[in-house]
Amino acid sequence: MGFAGDSVGGYPSNAFSPYSVGGYSTSPKRTRGVQAEGLGMTKLEDLEKKCSLWRYRVPLSDIHELETVNSKYGDEFMVADTPWRMHLQQRTDQASNAVYLAVHLQCVHTLAGGTYGHFKISIANRDPDKSKGKNFHCHFKKPGSAWGLHHFIQLERLLNPEYGFLERFEIGDNEAITCVNIEILLKVIDPGHDGTYVFGQLPKPSKSLHHKPPIQASLLWPEQDFTDMQFIFGSGDSVGAHRCIIQCRCPKLLVSEGDVQLHPNITPEVFDMFLKFVYSEETPDGRPSNAEAFIDLYQLAIEHDFVFLAEKCLSLCGPLITGSNVLDLINAKQNELDDPTLQLIFLRVLTSNYDALIEDPRFENLPGKLNRRLSLIMRSKESLGEIVFPRGNDDKTLSSDLHGLAKSEANSDLEFILPGGSTMHLHKIVLTNRTSQQWEGSSHQLPGGPEYEFSDATYVQFFEALYRGTIDSPSGEPLTPELITLTLKMDEELQLTNPNLRKECEAAISPQTSLPLYVLACKHQVPSLADTSKALLSRSFLDKIRDEPDRVWEFMEELSKQGITDLFKAFTQHIIELQPRA
Predict the structure, then answer these.
(1) 3-class state of residue 228 by DSSP
(2) Which of 152, 297, 415, 435 is most buried as measured by Cβ atoms within 10 A of its Cβ?
(3) Are 482 and 453 spatial neighbours (Cβ–Cβ below 8 Å)?
(4) Buried b / exposed e across 131-170, counting CB within 10 Å, b at 16+?
(5) Are 39 and 59 a contacting pair, CB within 8 Å?
(6) Are 466 and 487 in contact (CB under 8 A)?
(7) Secondary structure of 451-484 in HEC code, one letter for each residue
(8) Is 220 within 8 Å of 275 (Cβ atoms)?
(9) CA proximity to 88, closest of 58, 133, 130, 125
(10) Cα(521)–Cα(560) distance, rounded to whole angstroms?
(11) How much of the chain is in helix, strand and coil states, percent to nearest 5?
């Protein structure tokens, strides 16, 4: 695994062609001597007297610089009155020739006799289950001692956006840079009276560096049911779409009330990839291996503020732009050369293949501005610089856009009549993807009766959660017993296809909420919820009677005779189980 002990300095630098965005860095230049707030070392939490959680947010440019510099160090930070710092290098596995990021924790100044540390180094992933971490118990014997792994993570994997280790971090009002987040949980261990060390377990942080897993809110594509508009290509071919989805995801496309004529340069192949992302947030998988198609898709993504898709397009097209095709691509994309990102990608290939390309007759056709910049770069009068993406809107996701659609009710095609007579205006395309029901006709009405009598506000909350793909409140507020009950009722009634809503509701069932949930489950006839809440309530019933008797009896008055009987059966059984056997 490339475990590294005491000294990690003096390693040779290893050549590596970055992968993150088509082989190019995605972080902007930073003003010399100035670092954006939040970059570098940040303390997240003190857990014990000599134990802290820190985050090392590393710009991607620092990772790339390891090609030419031996080491990179983070700022010093203090734990247990001892200075520490993170140490990064680039290492090559001699057997496989794979290039790795080496990550070590260095004790800058040790105590007499050395310092013992119990620590965990993790590289964060947007899916916490895929974060890469390693625990260490180490003796830092002398100043400068460092422990970690030479082969912590393969650079190709780290820098590939598909694997989820890259984060876009805002550095200003209109810019963001790509970073890698490294988490260090460090506990300094003191020796016992007999001089030995007991490591035990590291405490669990309450604050997490890791992002929550992305919400699964995808819609099927292609999906031709309930389409109400057409996108028409220059060839005369067309593809159907749903105006409500286009309106909430990429409204700039809706240039007319009816069908939309696309620019002649947009091909069905490219637009299909674009619509697949619009509907599902799925990015291309590398097919087709056509740089021009990915450039066109990149342009669409930037125009509609899909920064993640734009980065993915560049990561796919970058390796496809070579010395053999760059001049043809520049000629074909002359109208797009004002885009600084595309211009920089072409310049990188031109400079790398300059000696061969200057002999090519097509070289004379280079546009003037591009040719001038190339000349300045080759004469070392100007640097290539870094790729800078405009700051993306991190709140703009399919889940958030569908939430906005549910609230606005724009372009609805279904009246959903609630038991109280109120009407919600919904969208068949979303309901078809979220349930197993058939949504024919222009209206739908739930059956009558007490079991469906929830407040209108709770029905609104449920359908907004159904659209979003999660019932967790955007503001972090706890779920109400009525919303939990309605969601589980609708899970049975509408046959929800997303298991996430049920799982989130089940996770919110606790001894504290068991009493109102049992009452509501009996009233609204949700057997699964009644069984779960009854089991929890039977175990905590005596405590509730002692602590809040008035509240308990108030709820009990709402139960049917059968509900009371079932609860006391469960309570009696629990009491019997607690009695010692003879």
Answers:
(1) coil
(2) 297
(3) no
(4) bbebebebbbeeebbbbbbbbbbbbbebbbbebbbbbbbe
(5) yes
(6) no
(7) HHCCCHHHHHHHHHHHHHCCCCCCCCCCCCHHHH
(8) no
(9) 58
(10) 11
(11) 40, 20, 40
User: Is cis: bond before 288, omega within 30 of 0?
Assistant: yes
Residue 404's Cβ-count burial label (10 Å; 0-12, 13-18, 19+) is middle
The string of pLDDT tens digits covering residues 268-318 is: 999 999 999 999 999 887 666 689 999 999 999 999 999 888 888 887 888
Q: Is 385 helix (H, G, I), strand (E, B) or coil?
A: coil
Distance CA 83, CA 188 (A): 11
Residue 139: strand, helix, or coil: strand
Structure tokens at 108: 């800058």
Residue 32: both structure tokens together: 């010399």
- Separation of alpha carbons 183 and 358, rounded Å: 47
Q: Report angle CA 491, 493, 498 to the nearest 5 degrees.
A: 30
pLDDT for 363-394, tens place per residue? 999 998 899 999 999 998 888 766 665 555 55
CB atoms within 10 A of CB 310: 23
Structure tokens that stand for 91 in this block: 């290492």
Q: How far apart are the first and last CA of the chain?
A: 57
**Helices (DSSP H) in 55-148: which residue ranges?**
60-65
Environment class of 178 (CB within 10 Å of its CB; exposed 0-12, middle 13-18, buried 19+): buried
| Helix residue spans in 396-526 (DSSP H) | 398-408, 428-434, 456-468, 481-493, 499-507, 514-523
In 3-state terms, what secondary structure has residue 91? strand
Which of 464, 412, 460, 459 has its CA nearest to residue 439? Answer: 412
Query: Strand (E) positions, 163-290?
Result: 166-170, 175-189, 229-232, 238-241, 260-261
Tokens describing residue 57: 């947010």
The encoded tokens of residue 389 equal 């993406």
